[in-house]
Specification:
By secondary structure, the protein is α+β, with helices and mostly antiparallel strands. It contains 14 helices and eleven strands. InterPro entries: Kinase-like_dom_sf (IPR011009), MAP_kinase_CS (IPR003527), MAPK (IPR050117), MAPK_HOG-like (IPR008352), Prot_kinase_dom (IPR000719), Protein_kinase_ATP_BS (IPR017441).
Length: about 425
Amino acid sequence: MLDFQQLIKLRERVRKRAEASPMRELPPFPLNRPHLSGRNRARGQTARSDLKSRAAMQSPVRNSPVRPGYHRVEVQKTTWDVPERYATLLAIGSGAYGTVSAIDQKTKEKVAIKKLYRPFQSLIHAKRAYRELRLLRHIQHDNVISLLDVFTPDSTLEKFQTFYMVMPFVAQDLGHIMKRKRLSDRIITYLFYQLLRGLKYIHSAGIIHRDLKPGNLAVSESCELKILDFGLARQTENEMTGYVVTRWYRAPEVILNWMHYSQGVDVWSAACILAEMITSTVLFPGHDSIDQLKKILNLTGTPDSSLVQKMQSKDAQSYVQGLPSQKKKNFKVVFPTMNEKAVNLLEGMLLLDPEKRLTASQGLAHPFLSEYHDPDSEPDSKPYDDSFESLELDVGEWKSLIHMEIMTFDPNNPGQTAI
């Protein structure tokens, strides 16, 4: 566990190390994912056919001061300072952070590089950046995105303003796939099994994703799924906003903020994703939060008195008690063509009371997933130390901790954090 005095000592140690020498150059490392190598090479070969036509998207910035071993590239009017091992940068994302694909010249694999813009602009941004880095360093699971590398072009703590994270590249997300084609029953079952397998792992570490949606599920050509984007994971209550989960996949307790969030919010989102894969239609396409709740209660019925009493928000209690009473719909009637086992699983995952909702582990053991369920290949996570969450630090102190994590990152042992 980390207390404030330990942090102060750590911060001073970081400063002394940063002042004594530039940050370490990252050593070459194996991906330690041999089952991905062939596919990534094939993906890279496919991508090379259109690289020439897209080359205009990136260009080296001449006569610019860059630290030794790095090169500066402009991608869609944004400057990227990355180690020379990463070449052929192409834009694949934007927003609060940008993402490019690149070729790792040491491993010959295609990777995704995420740049965090101005991560120290506020206390919330700094703590969020540290949280995401710690989470990615901890996670080691086939169905959850992992961290291959992390670096900064800034040579000292005083100059430290931005950093980059390198992760496996996966070309498609589930949302784009569902827009293009209808999925077969077998593929749906396999993808959903992997989703629950990944959720079981992160939930066993006490981690809540909080933003599960089709766009945050990467799917390879061989239908291997990875849960992406932990930018909202484990946020403290004072950082939460009403827009924690993309509206259509929000659990009812998130919409009304009627009780502390649990891992059940991820289970609810997963159920919405399963229904969407099967029906090719969004399950609860609300226009706003109130409409979202109405659509949910139209299927599940209004909360019973026992659930209302559990609600920690008096406003939520009053609002729900003022709603017209509705009975739960018959799921078999609502989904007449759906596999009976899938209907039963959905009912268990879409319970209004998160304490009664199926867990990811229970979902894996459901008959719907019996073809793939194997307890011996569904591991739990090692304990995750989140003691830093309770610390009240300033931006500079969070910055020092992030700098330390980057300096001590070992690609051969990514789960070993600095503290």
